[in-house]
Write a structure and sequence with these properties.
2 copies of one chain form a homodimer.
Chain A (H helix, E strand, L loop, with lengths): L5 E6 L6 H14 L4 E5 H7 L8 H20 L3 E5 L5 H11 L2 E7 L2 H7 L4 H6 L21 E4 L5 H14 L9 H4 L22
Parallel strand pairs in A: 1-3, 1-4, 2-3, 4-5
Helix pairs in contact in A: 1-7, 3-4
Chain lengths: ~210, ~210
């Protein structure tokens, strides 16, 4: 009787562009009346995991909690958009198993570009040794082996990444292409990657 | 374009009948195609709050987490059914404020009846001093000052409590009376409280 629920899971280094893309996807799906919620890593840390640290155990438990909430939202036909570093491959695979309708988006961006963006000034602090267990600097990041979608935020505009994601979701039959205006005037393969070199600072660093 | 979300919040002593009623309401709404999820106190402790204890702070944080998840589910048009002791009035009022569409059900049952049911054998342990901070024994329970619904599980059958709850939800316009079979053959005031005395052990103790 209603939309099929699913979870879009953005994983990537700090400042790779996860939250920005999550908001863009949210906006696009919201506009057409789909029921969508963003579970942002920072907010979840505050709301569900204040007690947890950034050790491997702390991170794993945090991801388990996010996966549980995403599962509930998905189960009732909602769209959960997760934006969380989620550095461990195994944690993400467990989330996929638990949630079922799970679309993993690897927000791929080279570390030097993320460091230059440094949206929250945390790379600077991590490099100074003021933050321990910082992913990419003093803590590992395991890129997905076989993500459903890869976006290259150092090479594509946010709008291009957005279209790539929406096109894949339509291809997976989560909604018809005709529903989303971003896809309506495009050819079946709508991804036009701008090959104009690095897009440092622009517009991702905002 | 779809159902209006809301949260039904069951509060009451251990063994008062919260989980039983939550499951009955879930079943009734599920049957007619509404999107409904039960957030049961025990499961939430395991999934979101393993780290928290049963001090006042631990309980308050646990309720804040449940309220956050219920808010997300409600926001996307789902029905969240919370079954949690939630002993503090102020915590429940904060949940109401945060969630908005919030229906508080006081599962009212005298302590001696709850102790006799003792579904999980915890009153016994608490009385022996094997469990600390046990609500009703060694920890306070603050009944709601002005709940939306009161069910008297020592005097009503589960079916009568269920009808009372469904009737109130229909009255609040969360769904039409005609949708739910439990209400279809009833008069506008469908609550028929069985005044046959205490229903100890039957069928609540199952």
């Amino acid at each position: 009787m209603r939309q099929k629920g699913f979870t879009i899971w953005f994983t990537g280094l700090p400042s790779s562009g996860k939250s920005t893309l999550a908001r863009l996807v949210q906006q696009a799906l919201d506009e057409v009346g789909l029921d969508v919620v963003v579970l942002d890593g920072d907010e979840i840390r505050q709301r569900l995991s204040k007690d947890l640290g950034f050790s491997k155990e702390g991170r794993e438990e945090n991801i388990r909690r996010i996966a549980y909430v995403a599962k509930l939202l998905t189960k009732i036909g909602g769209i959960a958009i997760v934006a969380a570093i989620s550095p461990y491959r195994e944690s993400r695979e467990r989330a996929r198993m638990e949630i079922g309708d799970f679309v993993e988006v690897f927000v791929d961006c080279p570390l030097p570009v993320c460091m230059q963006r440094d949206v929250k000034g945390l790379y600077l602090k991590a490099n100074r040794g003021e933050i321990q267990n910082f992913t990419g600097i003093s803590d590992p990041y395991e890129p997905p082996a076989d993500p459903d979608i890869i976006v290259r935020t150092d090479q594509e505009s946010p709008e291009a990444s957005l279209k790539k994601i929406l096109a894949k979701l339509a291809e997976l039959r989560y909604f018809p292409r005709s529903l989303v205006k971003h896809l309506v005037n495009d050819k079946p393969d709508p991804v036009k990657v701008k090959k104009t070199g690095m897009m440092l600072g622009q517009p991702w660093s905002v």
